[in-house]
Structures are given as C-alpha cells and as structure tokens.
C-alpha cells in the first residue's frame, strides 16, 4: 500500500473511531443536556456526587481524599461553565463511587474579575474559569497530605460545545477509565 493508501486508511480509521465514540455515548439525551445548559451551574450539579468547596476547606478535602479527585471551578451563570457542568454531572453519575467530585463556585455571576483570577492562579494554579483540576496521588507519586501545595495531575480548560458534547463525553470517559482508574 502506497503513501496515499495509508493516509486514506488512517483517515477512515479515525473517522470510524470518531463515529464509534459518538455511538457509544448515544444513551445521553441531548435535549436534557441542552435544557440543563440553560440553568445555573449550582442547579446542574444539585443532586450529584459534587461536594462544594471554599478556600477554607479546599486543601483539607483534597489532601485527605483516598480517591482520585476532580475539582470543577465555575462561574454560576457563565455559558462555558454551564456546558462544562453538564458534562461533569454525567461523569459524576457514572464515576462517583470511584472518584471524588468537588465544585468550587468562583462567582455567582457570569465572569470572574482579573484580580480574582490572579488570586486563583496564586492559590490553585488556574489561569481562567471554568477549569477542571484532576488530582491523583497514585499516578503522580505525590503524597498530597505531605505537601503545602499540590500540583494537579491535569488542568483542563476546555468546555464542550453542545454540537460535539457526546464525543467529548465519550473521550473523557475513556480517558478516566484508561488513565485514572487503571
């Protein structure tokens, strides 16, 4: 098979893999996702495994958790935060027994100011909101309870576009299974 044939085969494989990932996540009702994405983040996360955090209890909860940790930083009425919260809600429903899910409300409005973002960067390493931080002491080899500042295993700033929500959902589920729950 020549170069063009290998490229075509690779492209078809990627396309089929993309389609397969979408089909596996087809059990998600996108009408419900769209409806939820119009509501405040606090409403989206209500009734889930998410536990609210504040500056006062952040490090205590993170350091003493025996499971991998996900922390969602959000602005309650921000569109990107709401889309991310819909994804986080479904992930918490599926992985809530294996992963600890925490939420950190940055702002009750739609945006965090520059001064507040500077404080978040200094305290937690964030550069923008919404953000998702993953802490996993096993994969990093860091004992969180022994450090003054724990560096997250991963910081994610992307917020899923509703058009590609199912694909993003499936890719995130696969990542969690392969890299966090291994």
Describe the fold and architecture.
- The chain is of the alpha/beta class.
- The chain has one domain: Glutaredoxin (3-Layer(aba) Sandwich), CATH 3.40.30.
- Helix content is 49%, strand content 14%.
- It is built from eight helices and five strands; from the N terminus they run αααβαβαβαβαβα.
- It has a five-stranded mixed β-sheet with strand order 1-3-2-4-5.
- Strand 2, helix 5 and strand 3 form a beta-alpha-beta unit.
- Helix 1 packs across helix 8.
- The longest helix has 22 residues.
- The protein is globular, with a radius of gyration of 18 Å.
- The protein starts with a helix and ends with a helix.
What keyword list fits this structure?
single chain, alpha/beta, Glutaredoxin, 14% strand, disordered N terminus, 5 strands, 182 residues, five-stranded mixed beta sheet
